[in-house]
Amino acid sequence: MKKIRRITSRACIVLCFVLAACSGGGGDGGGGGNPTPPAPTPPAPAIGVQVNQITTDCTAVPGATEVTAFVSVIDQNGYPVTAMTKDNFLLTEDGINIAPDKITASFIQEMPIPVSVSIVMDYSKSIVDNPTVLKGMEASVIDFVNTLGDDDEAEIIKFSLENQVVQPWTSDKQLLTDAITAAWPPAGGNTSVYDAVYTAVTEITPAANRKAVVILTDGRDHPGSVVSLDDVITYAVGGDVPVFVISLGDEPRIAELQRLAAETGGIFYKASTLDDLDTVYAQIATIIQLNQYVITYDTAAGANAPVTLTVKGTLNGLEDADTKQFVRCP
Predict the structure, then answer these.
(1) Residue 217, pLDDT score
(2) For the chain, what are the domain ranges?
(3) Got the DSSP string for 23-55?
């Protein structure tokens, strides 16, 4: 105790200075430590309009003029916007407005048409080397599979440098689950995203149902894909296949993935954590299976004519638009 009492006045000054610096000047609460960082700014209100798919019933009705567009509208957090009517939509064909009385639009909370979903999973080295991420990805995909309806069908494609259909089309959720959790020997290579999507589009194009490719990856396409981004976008658009893209983690170079989703009629999602991944798959499930606007009208285009359809949505001063091409029935 005597040694403690002999601390010099200079030492006391130094000690007091250090304590004052650590306290941060008292802050807002006078409790010391670093000040609490401000809460993140919530995203500004917005809507996003996406034309997921366009159908013309050419087989059943030769020369048919009726066009059906399946349209998703989401808010700034990725959740469906459900309050819109046909008065909130403006449709144009090749730049010419379609009269509102020629349009019908309804929000369908349970789609009457089954959906075929190609589920594409990234098994590149960066994922398989992290068992927590690997198991979390598989668990989220299993949860997604369990949201499918009895008449829906899915397939499982795994990819790294190469890709493989590990479970062909089925409505059996147990078969899908077993394929998800089964070991895949080619795992651990580079990330050949575009080749995997090309395979998925090839598999799904003949399906008679509504279609969607849902791909998860933790990175952009690395050297290894045979097809280019432009090739796979053109291929998907030609097959009327929307590609929903989930970017897992903190890959900063996501412009290509965003373009892949936007230009095919899908939606891009960023999942920074595994918890985010559960939320994203749930959001995609509600969009492709439940919450969509079904917009129908009679096209003025001639037989076999290529048509550019633009759908613009407005709500409470917010607006967005999307464009998709199709070919009128012969």
Answers:
(1) 94
(2) 1-38, 47-109+292-327, 115-290
(3) HGGGTTTSS-SSPPPPPPPPPPP-EEEEEEEEE
